[in-house]
Write a structure and sequence with these properties.
Elements: E1 2-3, E2 7-11, H1 17-24, H2 27-30, H3 41-51, E3 61-65, E4 75-86, E5 91-98, H4 108-123, E6 128-134, H5 138-146, E7 150-161, E8 164-174
Parallel strand pairs: 5-6
Antiparallel strand pairs: 1-2, 2-3, 3-4, 4-5, 6-8, 7-8
The structure holds coenzyme A (COA).
The site of coenzyme A has 21 residues, from strand 5, helix 4 and helix 5.
């Protein structure tokens, strides 16, 4: 378990898969990630089996949040993680998805991004964490900025989304500029 303030990250279990199927079939959630077709439980089970073959550091983690800071109750709400780690350049891409929409806009996405960065820089000794985000995903961009990421590039019309081309922004944070308590 990786612990932060009101957020914690644990390994994904098979029992989590039905929740992922529910979330990933929600068009509003799919808009932010690169999925434009419905997904089945069998496909998620295949994804889970493949996940166990990946290096441990590249396996996504389940996100749990503490909705009420005065109660010791935790809710499983999504997943996040590092992938395509380049150990020579000490760089990794980061991804996040919070499927329980009622918990959006309460700062949890920002906390999770900070916690994954803390793990990347502190435990894995990485130097750079970067991400891709559609320019239409303003909620995500705002959360990433609050977590310390800055925009460094743009793939113009790099994604076809809902009948339109949208730019894909590249954002990153480097270890020397990262502040844990930002
Ligand atoms: C992106 C995501 C992780 C953000 O999580 P979150 O818990 O909602 O994020 P936070 O609450 O920490 O931050 C969201 C910020 O965006 C702001 N926001 C929300 N809608 C906005 C909009 N349309 N325009 C601008 N800002 C917006 C919120 O007000 C908040 O900022 P504030 O704290 O300054 O008020 C979550 O919404 C999600 O998983 N979405 C679906 C999957 C996805 O898109 N993943 C990202 C792929 S790159």
């Amino acid at each position: 378990m990786i612990r932060g303030e009101r957020v914690r990250l644990r390994a994904i279990e098979k029992a989590d898969l039905p929740a992922f199927v529910r979330w990933l079939n929600d068009p509003e959630i799919r808009q932010g990630i690169s999925l434009n077709r419905p997904i089945s439980l069998a496909e998620e089970e295949e994804w889970f089996a493949d996940l166990l073959k990946k290096p441990q550091q590249e396996r996504p983690l389940a996100i749990e949040i503490q909705p009420d800071p005065d109660k010791e109750e935790w809710a499983f709400v999504g997943n996040c993680g590092l992938f395509d780690i380049d150990w020579e350049s000490r760089s990794a891409e980061i991804g996040i998805h919070i499927g329980e929409k009622k918990y959006w806009d309460q700062g949890f996405g920002t906390r999770v991004m900070r916690l994954v960065c803390k793990h990347a820089f502190g435990d894995l000794n990485l130097h750079r964490v970067w991400l891709r985000v559609f320019e239409t995903n303003q909620r995500a961009i705002r959360a990433y900025e609050k977590a310390g990421f800055t925009q460094e590039g743009r793939f113009r019309e790099g994604k076809h989304l809902d009948g339109k081309y949208v730019d894909v922004l590249i954002m990153s944070v480097l270890r020397p500029e990262w502040q844990e308590d930002q």
